[in-house]
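Structure (tokenized):
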């Protein structure tokens, strides 16, 4: 892959799991972007130690920014920090990676679970994309530039067609419905942002060994993220508004 085609990148939820590995692989690529903004909600806390160590190692490249994707004030402040660092430059890749799962069947899932998961997995990505859009529009205006990309990290569990395959193992009402809504958000934004030359694609990272995926998951974060970055670097306008997996295969809605 050639991640260097993206001159500046913002990743949400980047202090652990898939987000942290995205930052690492982008920073350690031979053609790394010129700026990586690593958003996380508690940059000074113990759960951000690995990200802070990585940022120290690549201090000219990685800026860790406080970003709680469910807090409009935090999103606005993060955007101001990024705007100052870009100083008139543009953002060419936004990865809406932050997400949460509260597992549960019908009896175990109530209003709080539904609202909390929806807020994190759908409202957050929408607010972040909206706030950072002006920087991405600048990227699309640059002559001869790669089309800017918004990636919404979705899940195979969003697929209505495939629901029956693993439902009994993992009903996860709140998570499944939120990721299905994230797919629709992806499709709506893909339609609206076509005029700006911005691609919007939903990506399933595979079943990955992280805090969320658990130790039984098939893939390591390294495998998942290298696949995801390969897919991202090969996206064209025909992939905008679709749901792909970490190997670039389409997943039915
Ligand atoms: N692992 C899998 O098998 C799998 C499969 C399909 C899809 N996915 C998707 O992949 C993405 C990453 O998952 P993961 O496996 O890396 O999960 P993870 O290990 O649980 O990490 C989740 C990340 O999201 C962050 N986050 C949650 N809510 C946030 C908020 N309001 N603001 C900012 N950051 C927030 C967490 O930050 P804190 O440390 O502050 O909590 C953490 O950095 C998610 O969207 C998930 O749904 C994962």
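Design, position by position:
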């Amino acid at each position: 892959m050639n991640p260097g085609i993206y001159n500046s990148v913002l990743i949400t939820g980047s202090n652990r799991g898939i987000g942290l590995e995205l930052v690492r692989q982008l920073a350690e690529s031979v053609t790394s972007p010129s700026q990586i903004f690593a958003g996380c909600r508690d940059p000074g806390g113990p759960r951000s130690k690995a990200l802070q160590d990585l940022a120290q190692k690549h201090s000219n490249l990685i800026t860790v920014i406080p970003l709680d994707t469910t807090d409009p004030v935090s999103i606005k402040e993060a955007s101001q920090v990024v705007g100052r660092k870009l100083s008139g430059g543009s953002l060419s890749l936004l990865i809406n990676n932050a997400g949460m799962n509260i597992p549960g069947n019908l009896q175990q899932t109530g209003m709080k679970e539904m609202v909390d998961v929806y807020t994190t997995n759908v409202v957050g990505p929408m607010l972040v994309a909206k706030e950072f859009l002006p920087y991405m529009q600048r990227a699309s205006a640059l002559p001869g530039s790669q089309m800017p990309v918004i990636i919404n990290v979705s899940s195979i569990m969003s697929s209505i067609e495939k629901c029956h395959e693993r439902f009994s193992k993992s009903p996860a009402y709140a998570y499944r419905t939120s990721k299905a809504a994230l797919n629709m958000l992806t499709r709506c934004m893909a339609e609206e942002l076509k005029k700006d030359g911005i691609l919007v694609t939903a990506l399933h990272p595979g079943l990955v060994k992280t805090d969320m995926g658990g130790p039984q998951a098939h893939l390591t974060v390294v495998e998942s993220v290298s696949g995801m970055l390969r897919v991202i670097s090969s996206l064209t306008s025909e992939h905008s508004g679709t749901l792909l997996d970490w190997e670039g295969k389409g997943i039915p809605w």
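Reviewer-requested clarification: The CA atoms of residues 118 and 183 lie 12 Å apart. Residues 3-245 form a domain with the Rossmann fold fold (CATH 3.40.50.720).
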